[in-house]
Design brief:
With 240 residues, this protein is mainly α. Helix content is 64%, strand content 0%. The protein is built from eight helices and no strands. It has helices at residues 3-27, 31-41, 43-51, 110-116, 119-137, 141-183, 193-211, 213-233. The longest helix has 43 residues, at 141-183. The radius of gyration is 51 Å and the shape is elongated. The chain starts with a helix and ends in a 7-residue tail after the last helix. The mean pLDDT is 77.
Amino acid sequence: MTEGEDNYENSIEDNDSERLAIRNELSSLSFEDLQKLKERIGAKLYKEVVFGKKDNVRNTPKVYKRENKNRPREMSSKRPVPFLKDVVTLPKQSEIRDPRFDPLCGEFDKRQFAENYSFLSDIRIKDIKAIRAELKETTDPEKVLKLKRLLQRLNEQHKAGRKARVELEKIEKQKEDVEKVFKEGKQPYFKNKSELRVETLVRQYEDLKKEGTGRIQRHLKRRQQKLKKRSHKAPKGVVS
């Protein structure tokens, strides 16, 4: 052993003996005195005196090797995960809303709807006139048949719209009459379904009478045919 190595070992032993002596002295102190000493000399120096100096040894990264080139490479599980990951951004789709079931669109008002789309009735009347004019000039039987069907469908739509407007006006008039009677302090009379049905039939026959007697006869004939079919469909022993 050389002289330098002897001196190094002697210095280590001296340091250890000094550290042991300091520890023995500190062990006799109270916790309050130790805390004051730590605050006076600093936490770093206090740890060096009590626990000794730590050698600064860098943690060299471990190199993972494969025993065989055909084996998968071993990876460390301590690899930090990136905070943000690159994700393909898709275009934001607009939210589809159905106004029939969306409370944001408000409540459905039949009268307001009829007023907003009243122009469709005028357009339909113009289409009916144009189809009638084209029907007079057309000689092709297939085209005539198509035009007649289209004309019939437009006429039915026009009549259904007119009937709906009349019914709406009738309901509003009934509401106004009920409110008027209430304001007068009287009890209003509400008609039952059978009375309303009779009134509807009477009004329907009056409209047919205006169009001509032939229209009434055709309507009665169709009604008789419906009743006849209904009686055939009914089970035996049951009178409709």
